[in-house]
Every structure is written in C-alpha cells, then in structure tokens.
Design goal:
Layout (H helix, E strand, L loop, with lengths): L2 E2 L4 E2 H29 L3 H12 L4 E3 H7 L4 H13 L3 E6 L2 E9 L1 H21 L8 H13 L7
Antiparallel strand pairs: 1-2, 3-5, 4-5
Helix pairs in contact: 1-5, 2-5, 3-4
Length: about 160
Amino acid sequence: MTLLHDEGLTVEELAVWRMLQRVQARIARHLEADLLDAHGLPLASYEVLRQLAEAPGRRLRMNDLAERVLLTRSGLTRMIDRLQRETLVTREACASDARGLFAVLTERGAQRLAEATPTYLRGVRTRFLDALGGDEVGRIKDLLHRLGGPDAGHA
C-alpha cells in the first residue's frame, strides 16, 4: 500500500477518486451532446427545468434552485435569464421576502422538458444503467447516499 505525500491516500484510492470524476464528466458530456443534438437544450438547462417541474407549484426560490442544480447564484441568474428569453421560465417576486425571487416553469418550459425527457432517460439507461448488473444499482445508491449526506435525496 503505497501512500502519496503526507495526505494518507494510496495510489489506488486516488485512482478511484479520479476515475469517479472522469466517469461522471464523460457521462454528462454524452447526455449534454444528446440533448443539444435532439432538442437544442444544454444539460444544465434540462436539470433546471426538471427541478422546477418536480417542485410544488412548479416553482423554487432561486437560492434553493441554485443549490439543487449545483450552480452559483450568479451562474443560475444567467441561466434563468436565457431560459426566460426562451419563455421556458419566468421570475416571480416572493410575497414573504421582498428580496427573494422564484423561478417558475412555464407551460412552454414544461412542454420542452417533456420532449427532452425521453432523450435524457435513454442516455442515462445506455450510458450508465446498462453497464450495471443485478443489485449494483441499490449498492451504488447506498454508497452515494452515504457520501451525499442529508440532502442526497434531491438528486
């Protein structure tokens, strides 16, 4: 067991970490390419629309949405600007907090999401799930939940 530097990581442990990063990035690139080719929709935009569709009233506070889609607040603001120009989302003021804003999925946004979802799900199936066997999905879910902490359910 060879350790790397003073951090206490073995060569194998670091290799597994790097492999996880590469696999996630590779799958995301393929999903993005599929969505762009078929629907002109970037993966991050798809994720925003999906999060809004699954939220009560098809709306989320901007801060909550940014956390769920792993974007900075400024990055989400720019994305919502683009999605709003395409009339896929709107912004609404928060009645309980004058500084707060909601992102709200429009009917057009819901339609665009519905059109893109089969492409997304097919990509998840062929680029991830088909490579797994038997009880591996359950085992991976357990591992990721352990790594993700209490908010792992917002996937």
